[in-house]
Prior knowledge:
Elements: E1 4-15, E2 22-33, E3 37-41, H1 48-55, E4 63-68, E5 71-72, H2 78-88, E6 89-93, H3 104-109, H4 119-132, H5 148-160, E7 166-170, H6 178-193, E8 197-201, E9 213-218, E10 221-227, H7 238-248, H8 256-262
Parallel strand pairs: 3-8, 3-9, 6-7, 7-8
Antiparallel strand pairs: 1-2, 1-4, 4-5, 9-10
Helix pairs in contact: 4-5, 5-6
The structure holds adenosine-5'-triphosphate and magnesium ion.
Magnesium ion binds at residues 48-49, 170.
Amino acid sequence: MNDTIIELKGLTKRYGYGDTESFALKDFDLTIKRGEFIMIMGPSGCGKTTLLNIIGLLDRATSGEYTLNGKNVASISSARQARLRAKKIGFIFQNFNLIEDLSILENVALPLVYVNRPRTVRLKNASQALERFHLQEREYYLPGQLSGGQQQRVAIARAIVSDPEIILADEPTGNLDSHASNIVMEELKAIHEEGNTIIMVTHNPALTVYATRVINMLDGQIDTDVKTVADQNLPQPIDVKIKKRSKRSKSNKSNKSNKRRKR
Ligand SMILES: Nc1ncnc2c1ncn2[C@@H]1O[C@H](COP(=O)(O)OP(=O)(O)OP(=O)(O)O)[C@@H](O)[C@H]1O
Ligand SMILES: [Mg+2]
């Protein structure tokens, strides 16, 4: 059975005081199991990005509890939060958020700076991540020289380069045509099948076929929450499989990132 990776209890995000007080999230409860592919939908302004930013440790809630891998994140310093974010969480945004004057390779290598990898390792890992998305021939292009779909695949390569367990995607197909959107969704599907947890915001109901759970939000709260895949049928994280396998064969030194690179 997959364990709980994220638990939110009574999470509230308030903006302003008195007459200007408003709530982006209100007493929000959510438990996420490892290996879920959650799609979050809901009208503009209902709090989807706020939720993703709090889960991704880019923002803090006004009150409530956020437990990540069994740790209460409110009690840890901003510096430790940043390290945790670099190790555990990959982000994909609607507008790709690539740095325009850095090559594709340098862009993808960037998250590895925050986990203190030497430059040669960073570039090697970035190159391997780009290979997975068939973009290795464009390593030295600048983002502006790629199509939107290619840029988003670069952004996905950047999101997975440090082998995070959680991928957060805020309308990743929002700026793409349907062909590019399908390619991006197939890539996310493959990443999910490796046992990663994905939380994705979308306005496109057609994409919910990829999800194992669809949450509709309204006014900072959950309106509906439907699991389409039972918890026991979620993909097993690869490192758990490896642990089981290594009980049989101690010599197996492969790890999640090696496995991913071999694909
Ligand atoms: N910095 C801020 N100051 C004040 N209010 C904010 C701030 N950031 C967000 N809000 C408010 O919080 C609410 C939720 O915003 P959020 O960006 O999470 O919505 P969303 O569901 O992602 O919308 P969209 O679908 O348009 O992206 C909105 O009412 C917004 O105006
Ligand atoms: Mg948003």
